[in-house]
Amino acid sequence: MNFSKVKTTILAGAMVFGLGVGQSSAETLKYAFQGSLKSLDPYSLNETFTLGFLGNVYEGLIRRGPDLNIQPALATSWEVLEPTKWRFHLRRGVKFHNGNDFNADDVIFSADRVRAEGSDLTTRIPKDAKFVKVDDHTVDVILTSANPILHYEWGTWSIIDKEWAEANDSVKVTSASDDNATKISLEANGTGPFKITKHDVGVSTSLVPNNGWWDTPKHNLTKIEFTTIASDATRVAALLSGDLDMVYPIPVQDLKRVDSNDGTRALIGPELRTIFLGMDQIRDELLESNIKGKNPFKDVRVRKAFYQAINIEAIKKKVMRDLADPSSIMISPFLFSNSGDFVRYPYDVAASKALLTEAGYPDGFEVGMDCPNDRYVNDEAICQAVTAMLAKAGIKVNLNAQPKSKYFAKVLASNSFETSFFLLGWTPGSLDSWNVISNLHGCRDEKGKGSPFNLGGYCNPKVDELAKQILVENDPAKRDGLITEAFRITTDEVAYIPLHQQGLAWGVSDKITLEQRADNQFMMYYVTKN
Amino acid sequence: MSDASTNSNAKINDNEKGLVVRIIDSDMFYSFRQSKIVMAAAFVTLSYFLLALFAPLISPQNPFDLANLDLMDGLTPPAWEDEGQARFPLGTDDQGRDLLSAILYGSRLSLTVGFASVAFAAILGISLGLISGYVGGLVDTVIMRIADIQLTFPSILIALLIDGTVSALFPSSNREDTAFWVLVLAIGLSFWVQYARTVRSSVLVEKEREYVQAANLIGLNPVTIMLRHVLPNVLGPILVIITINLALAIITEATLSFLGVGIPVTQPSLGTLIRIGQDFLFSGEWWVTIFPGAALAILVLAVNLLGDWLRDALNPKLR
């Protein structure tokens, strides 16, 4: 290797760190995340980290507080005039970062743009909803059917300045696979608490506070530097050495080290994502099994046998190091008040074997399993543990753990759900059970029509009927009753095997205080540093 | 070993003692006994062979039988540490696999892959080298140019490429069964060039010799000449390459498994174990990666030392 080149690299590296150290005045927040920030177009990618980051720069009509409650943001209030007609009153005197005024035209423009071609956030607003301008600060939304949770996902639907977008050739959405950089993918013009000053695509981003923000700032920052550090060990080391104020995620095995280190602490809490196992129940013969001519997973006894073979406490203790909450249903207990009514089927290998014998598989059978190895916390280790546990019940699992890009390309609708047995995680974007029931439990065809993320193809028309009723039910108690009924059916029929809600794990310097949100979004405007 | 065999050999009568005595009296054996390091390396290598061969009898647990594993035993430290348990002398990995057993089985896997892939590479390389050198002309050009092209790539890249291609062709559910053969194929194909080139250059020298011309004159067919007359005379350098390649093949297998494309996690080889342990290295659970790592390093060092010695011993200029 060329020596001078090496030297330059080292110098450059030293300069980067030198700069950081030199400027470490009390109010600069430096933090790192495992993944990278690519396009700044808020409609490019429906992914927690990107949406959470841009939530500090752009704002929606509503926002979610630290405990995920809905707060007014760009809309000061709203009312449901008729079940199918909502009225939103917009905040007055709000300015975008470039000084333009925020008004009803921006909302209508954003509503069209978020549903346009290339947007990854099309589900934020029903396709046939109409946005009507009443005056400059009032917008009506006309729906074709009632939808009491219309605005639930609007915290991540950023409002874009119409004039700015049109002037900068950024009306068209920059899709995630788009290579042509548009102005809006490289620069941001929101109404939020921070402005982006420099964006090095996929590497680092700098922000400064927006002094004209309409809300009273709770932070005391003067500058924010964000970097991507993909390697777990490097990220943890940067926090421990004091180079960074905050990093996430922290791998579970390093939590103790971060917590016991002087000057840093590990912030852990339950995440809303539910990790579960799914089984192909729609094909007449499994793609990857030694059982030919029939599909053992069509038999509820087999599904229950799989369920009871899994020692969830061992996974919690050994694989997740207690940073997980075993779950009895497919949604986090924080999002569904009746979740206490459900209990897990007990771990019982003998019962599992008995069920398999009863179903006609006394010696078990062989089945292939798909698993990502870089998506969820310790995903591959969980799959390995499941493989070993099922072996005790006589099931031979051929584990195929691969990176998420290959994994998703294999098991999703785009590849006709090519899987027999899989591990997946799901966070309902609306933070509501209806999302879980309709996306994961609805009847679907081979192409995924009806319920695109129901990989196993579980189907019970009664559940579909309940989902329809839940969507339009306005009375919370009745609605919870319907949801309970639906989950009761899917639990009895073992539609899935829920495993746990994985934990959030942030590493934080003692110099800063912050709020940790259960959906793993990082709100920089709650950070104080001293 | 040498003393005992010398004594017992003394009783064998003159007519039958031929081979053994010839070995004992040979220069090779003399140089072997001269170096303590080589003797130690031979001892270590032999121990590995025996341990690997008898792994199912020696090891406390069958680490490939998933039904034997209990997750609750996961990440138990070695027996001499505070929380260690006597039944896991070297501790366990994250799935509760006894590390000692896993290393024994893993070495067995590493050695088997090593031998099989070297044998495959040698057979392929020697055949192509013989044909190339003996036939010459267009055949020679084609084979040697392919070899040249392959030589411009690092062998690990070739192995990765082949592994990727073959894995894509086989259904993933058979991965446990096919992974071994895919590895052998991938490593073998990435190593054949050295054999081919060495054999070819030796053949080019040998085929001008009188004994080959004589064989030709009495009308033997080319295949017989190649196998019966030329091959035995080019075997010396091949033996050296085989030994050194064995160490390389073991390392390549470990590398591929470390990268996650080799032997599946349910049947960990040494490389797979190192990969699993790597995640825990800085978190206090050092044993998961250190022990397999040490086992691999010692095995490769021993085989390499043997190869070096063999090269020196067979080199007439160094005698």
What does this structure look like?
The complex is a heterodimer of chains A (530) and B (319). Chain A has 530 residues and is α+β, with helices and mostly antiparallel strands. Chain A has a domain at 273-503: Dipeptide-binding Protein, Domain 3 (Dipeptide-binding Protein, domain 3). Chain A is built from 15 helices and 19 strands. Chain A has helices at 3-22, 48-54, 104-114, 162-167, 183-186, 232-240, 255-260, 300-308, 312-319, 349-358, 379-392, 404-411, 433-440, 461-472, 476-492; strands at residues 28-33, 62-64, 70-72, 75-82, 85-90, 130-135, 138-142, 194-200, 204-209, 223-228, 246-248, 264-279, 324-326, 366-372, 396-402, 421-426, 496-509, 512-513, 528-529. In chain A, the strands form five sheets. In chain A, strands 1, 8, 9, 10, 11, 12, 13, 16 and 17 form a nine-stranded mixed β-sheet that branches. In chain A, a hairpin with a 2-residue loop joins strand 6 and strand 7 (138-142). In chain A, 47% of the residues are buried. Residues 1-24 of chain A have low confidence and may be disordered. The longest helix of chain B is centred in the last third of the chain and has 38 residues, at 222-259. The radius of gyration of chain B is 23 Å and the shape is globular. Chain B is 72% helix and 0% strand. Mean pLDDT of chain B is 84; it is low at 1-10. Chain B folds into two domains: 2-34; 44-318, MetI-like fold (Orthogonal Bundle), CATH 1.10.3720. With 319 residues, chain B is an all-alpha fold. Chain B has helices at residues 2-10, 18-25, 27-34, 36-53, 55-58, 99-135, 137-151, 155-169, 175-206, 210-217, 222-259, 270-278, 287-314. Chains A and B meet through helix 6, helix 9, helix 11 and strand 15 of A and loops of B.
